């Protein structure tokens, strides 16, 4: 059994975690598990965790750690034969400790993007709620404005993507994320990237992962799309 690869990507709202995670999944054949998307799936499916999580997300709050860790770890138990990249989890120190007790991580990527850049990006972010597909009128616009390329269904903007909501989200993110970043720095597996453009960060992340991901992942898993 080849060694599997386990990674986490951290970053504030709008930093490009989803955008970069999709490129990693396509380039290296890892499974991308986004906590936000997984929660939305559970909410749509009206699972017990989804119904509970909805009550917190509607208030713009984080889902409690014990709900989040139970949900994410049970999903990860179904993925033990895959290499994966987690996006949006862990988000707190308590979540990181539970994850670290269950899995040994190889790499933690942390995106450090300026506030003004985040505001500008989220102002132009449009989302297809059902699929989680993400667009940006300045970066990756849909073929038809306001319409999802695949389903033809309407795109929406998140209420809390507005600039005035972002500052509070960002302050909360920084308070909660700092101990998580410090934990992985102390473990010697943290890699920090700072820039205003994903396309300038991507080559560095891609070359880092090329050196870290076992080459014997097998052709089926490691699909090069360059
Ligand atoms: N202009 C510009 N927009 C970008 C860039 N990278 C990503 N975006 C867009 O910026 C927005 C935020 O990117 P996401 O990948 O959704 O960021 P995220 O970290 O997953 O955000 P959350 O899900 O809120 O945590 C999206 O609309 C992206 O399409 C970039 O380099 N330049
Ligand atoms: N690891 C986690 N712990 C607690 N709540 C989480 C979580 N991941 C996601 N959530 C909740 C709070 C988020 O505002 C909401 C949507 O998550 P998201 O799609 O990653 O958006 P964002 O992080 O930009 O709010 O789900």
TrEMBL record:
Enzyme category, top tier: transferase
Q: Which domain of life is it from?
A: Eukaryota
Q: Which PROSITE patterns match?
A: ADENYLATE_KINASE
The entry's keywords: Acetylation, ATP-binding, GTP-binding, Kinase, Mitochondrion, Nucleotide-binding, Transferase
Catalyzed reaction equations:
CDP + ATP = CTP + ADP; dAMP + ATP = dADP + ADP; dGDP + ATP = dGTP + ADP; GTP + UDP = UTP + GDP
Q: List positions binding a ribonucleoside 5'-triphosphate.
A: 14-19, 125, 134-135, 198
The entry sums up its family as follows: Belongs to the adenylate kinase family. AK3 subfamily.
Species whose genome carries this gene: Hemibagrus guttatus
Q: Which SUPFAM superfamilies match?
A: Microbial and mitochondrial ADK, insert 'zinc finger' domain, P-loop containing nucleoside triphosphate hydrolases
Asked if Acetylation is a keyword of the record, the answer is yes
Q: Where is this region: LID?
A: 124-161
Give a yes or no for keyword rRNA processing in this entry. no
Q: Where in the cell is it found?
A: Mitochondrion matrix
**An example Gene Ontology biological process:** ADP biosynthetic process
Where in this chain does the record put each Adenylate kinase active site lid domain?
125-160
Question: What is the protein named?
Answer: Adenylate kinase 4, mitochondrial
**Region called NMPbind, residue ranges:** 34-63
Q: What is known of its domains?
A: Consists of three domains, a large central CORE domain and two small peripheral domains, NMPbind and LID, which undergo movements during catalysis. The LID domain closes over the site of phosphoryl transfer upon GTP/ATP binding. Assembling and dissambling the active center during each catalytic cycle provides an effective means to prevent GTP/ATP hydrolysis.
Per UniProt, AMP binds at: 35, 40, 61-63, 88-91, 95, 169
By which gene is this protein encoded?
Answer: AK4
List the InterPro entries hit by this protein, alphabetically. Adenyl_kin_sub, Adenylat/UMP-CMP_kin, Adenylat_kinase_CS, Adenylate_kinase_lid-dom, ADK_active_lid_dom_sf, AK3/Ak4_mitochondrial, AK4_mitochondrial, P-loop_NTPase
Query: Which Enzyme Commission number(s) are listed?
Result: 2.7.4.10, 2.7.4.6
Q: Which GO terms describe its cellular component?
A: mitochondrial matrix
Q: Which GO terms describe its molecular function?
A: AMP kinase activity; ATP binding; GTP binding; nucleoside diphosphate kinase activity; nucleoside triphosphate adenylate kinase activity
Binding partners and assembly: Monomer.
Q: Main role?
A: Broad-specificity mitochondrial nucleoside phosphate kinase involved in cellular nucleotide homeostasis by catalyzing nucleoside-phosphate interconversions. Similar to other adenylate kinases, preferentially catalyzes the phosphorylation of the nucleoside monophosphate AMP with ATP as phosphate donor to produce ADP. Phosphorylates only AMP when using GTP as phosphate donor. In vitro, can also catalyze the phosphorylation of CMP, dAMP and dCMP and use GTP as an alternate phosphate donor. Involved in maintaining the homeostasis of cellular nucleotides by catalyzing the interconversion of nucleoside phosphates. Efficiently phosphorylates AMP and dAMP using ATP as phosphate donor, but phosphorylates only AMP when using GTP as phosphate donor. Also displays broad nucleoside diphosphate kinase activity.
């Amino acid at each position: 059994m080849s060694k599997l690869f386990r990674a986490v990507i951290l970053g504030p709202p709008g930093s490009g975690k989803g955008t970069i995670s999709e490129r990693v999944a396509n380039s290296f054949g890892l499974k991308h598990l986004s906590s936000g998307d997984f929660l939305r799936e559970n909410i749509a499916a009206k699972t017990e965790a989804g119904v509970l999580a909805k009550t917190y997300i509607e208030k713009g709050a984080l889902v409690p750690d014990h709900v989040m860790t139970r949900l994410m770890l049970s999903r990860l138990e179904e993925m033990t034969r895959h290499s994966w990249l987690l996006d949006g989890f862990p988000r707190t120190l308590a979540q990181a400790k539970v994850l670290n007790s269950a899995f040994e991580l190889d790499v933690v990527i942390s995106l450090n993007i300026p506030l003004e850049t985040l505001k500008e990006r989220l102002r132009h972010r449009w989302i297809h709620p059902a699929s989680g597909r993400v667009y940006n009128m300045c970066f990756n616009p849909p073929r038809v404005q306001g319409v999802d390329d695949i389903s033809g269904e309407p795109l929406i903007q998140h209420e809390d993507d507005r600039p005035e909501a972002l500052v509070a989200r960002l302050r909360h993110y920084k308070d909660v994320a700092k101990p998580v970043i410090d934990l992985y720095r102390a473990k010697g597996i943290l890699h920090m990237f700072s820039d205003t453009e994903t396309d300038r960060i991507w080559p560095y992340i891609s070359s880092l992962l090329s050196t870290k991901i076992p080459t014997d992942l097998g052709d089926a898993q490691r699909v090069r799309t360059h």
